[in-house]
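The authors assume throughout that readers already know how a fold can be written as discrete tokens. For illustration, here is how one protein appears when written out as sequence plus structure tokens.
>
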Amino acid sequence: MSETELSVICKNCGSEVSPYVTECPYCGARLRKRAPKLERRGDGLEPKPRRGSPGRFLRLKLRARTGAHAHRPYATPAAILGSVALLLVEQASDASPASLGALTVPVHGEWWRFLTAPFVYVDVGYLFVVAVGLAIFGLGVERRLGSAATAVLLLACGALGMLAASAIANAQGEIVVIAGGNGMALGAVAAWFALRRAEAHGAVDQDYDRVGVAVATGVLLALPIFESTADVFAGLAGGAVGGLAGLAASVLRHDVP
């Protein structure tokens, strides 16, 4: 790092960050093993020049490139593309949502529908809103937690949201069809908010757009007003699961040195 370098670019998310941190505050990627050593020059502190061989520089560059590929998102695009594929099949074959895995209440022992129902949609509008929410917030979660953890998180938010919606519908004696990933998307928003809030806590110039988060949450919560298969309790339960998972992950990430 040169003496005149005021910032560095994170190779994982492309953000401009301080040259004195070891991890990117936006995506959590490791920038270096330790912060640069400082030495007093005149009235201030400046980074101490480091010398290294060309071979060491190439090794560090290769390691950073490998780390960037390791954080490439797969779970969120797979959730969106899987829903798109099911909707295309439904439109092409004129199949009913129940035949493709939507949750029908009473369940009658078909528990697998809790896992498939969040990926079933009856129209493009519903899918578009959820896909935008996942693309914005799900990818942010995945860059921080990885694909495997994000896949489990999205499935848990969707399935537990459907379980809560089914339990309430059963208690009210209703016969309904519930489908769509509003609980999954709200879970991604809540998890991202918990992680991002923990990153910004006590940091300088690390604020985030709370209005944008509130607008996205409001739109997803309002989906049951316009979509008959969207359920408000599925959304609330999915959001609660995502928020708790995000809080737990932020604590664990903070404790890891």
